[in-house]
Amino acid sequence: MHEYYFANYRLLVDEDISNSDYMDYLGGFSQVMPATHTFTVRWGGELQLDQQYAEAITHPVVCTTDRFNIHDMHDSWAFVSLMNEDTMKRNGKYVLTCSRDYRDMTLYISRQRYYEEVIQRWVTPDIPFSSAIRAACEAGMTMRDGMPLHAALVEKDGYGVVFLGPSGMGKSTQAKLWVEHQGADFIIGDRPGLRRINGQWIGFGMPWDGKDNIKQQKQVPIRALISLEQAPENSIRRLTKQEAMIVLLNQVMMPMWDDAAMALLTPLMGQLATEIPFYHLKNLPNAAATILTYEAIM
């Protein structure tokens, strides 16, 4: 088993999975951290795939993404790759089964080659099963004092600043401006993890990231969370707890299919909204926005 660490969790992965090209994103997260919980991903192989798939689809779909469906199997969860003909050819076929608390996972996978007419040769499908493992680990976080955010995280003066907002609102832009004009360190461009540890909120770089592919296995105490809005001029104000909760409800990656996880996550978000300052920044993508924000929060 290979060991990886993120957000003070340990991820154990079978060698057959870890050695796959599609798990390279875990490579930078092998430095040992003081892990409070362990997730395990075992290799189930290909021989049992059809049986696992047939069993999974007899159970109700509780969540659908662009890459997989999640089926509630009563005593476990099954993440099943979407199986229309085109998707099956290009993305392969897999089933990831998880215990109800996401602690134990087993991956069943097939990479049958197909003939690509456009390039006129046989091709091995790219299997995006890492997205299912990410979703399972993030759901497991929410049951263990953690939450993944649709956000960017930087470190400045030993503290973490989190920029939140919908796609295209300028999270990465503001983070890069802080690097350029405030000397900040860009920890992760999307999906940082937050945990409350010993009464303190800590932000973590995570193995997975969005388009920027900026990620470090690093942790930092959180100073403030900044909700972004593009505007013709820069202004910033402190949010109330109620306003902060609205931001979190839109930007926390929540396992909406899992009532048990949501029951633990909701009060945790309430603690975050109470204990850490939230601000709303109307901004232009310029140095003045970073100066205004720094003066407000520091």
Considering the chains and any ligands shown, give keywords for the structure.
single chain, 298 residues, alpha+beta, 8 helices
Could you give a short description of this structure?
By secondary structure, the protein is α+β, with helices and mostly antiparallel strands. It has helices at residues 15-18, 49-56, 85-91, 129-142, 171-182, 241-251, 259-275, 287-297, and strands spanning 2-6, 9-13, 37-45, 61-64, 68-72, 76-81, 93-99, 104-110, 114-116, 121-123, 146-148, 151-156, 159-164, 185-188, 193-197, 200-204, 219-230, 235-238, 278-283. Strand 1 (2-6) and strand 2 (9-13) form a beta hairpin.
Indicate the topology.
Elements lengths: L1 E5 L2 E5 L1 H4 L18 E9 L3 H8 L4 E4 L3 E5 L3 E6 L3 H7 L1 E7 L4 E7 L3 E3 L4 E3 L5 H14 L3 E3 L2 E6 L2 E6 L6 H12 L2 E4 L4 E5 L2 E5 L14 E12 L4 E4 L2 H11 L7 H17 L2 E6 L3 H11 L1
Strand tally, please?
19
- Tell me about the largest β-sheet: 9 strands, mixed
Individual helix count: 8
Percentage of residues in helical conformation: 25-40%
Shape label: globular
Mean pLDDT across the residues is 90
Q: What amount of the residues lies in strands?
A: 35-45%
Radius of gyration: 20 Å
User: Alpha-carbon distance between the termini?
Assistant: 43 Å
Q: Uncertain regions: pLDDT < 50 for 5+ in a row?
A: none
Q: What string, H for helix and E for strand, traces the elements in order?
A: EEHEHEEEHEEEEHEEEHEEEEEHHEH
Structural class: alpha+beta
